[in-house]
Here is the input.
Amino acid sequence: MKRYTSRIKQFRILLFSIIRKKVFYDDGTYVGKVVDILETGANEVLIIEKEIDRFNKSETIYPLIKENLIKFNKTDEDIVVKRLEWYEDESEDRD
Here is the structure.
């Protein structure tokens, strides 16, 4: 039981270290900064906020699962993730 509790503590510390990191897609597109993490039970979900201008921000939710992470290091300032196929980016014209 002690070993399991230790793993949970380490995981919580890891999650806390993700807050305020910059997130980029694998093609280099800036997604935003992690502002919060939702714990859903199945997996954690990153809440990523991008400042559009001084008064407007956009929010993206992103599932935090191992298959989607390309680059993550606790000491780096940024995280690189896969662009999800189902996610529609309003900035791109997909006609």
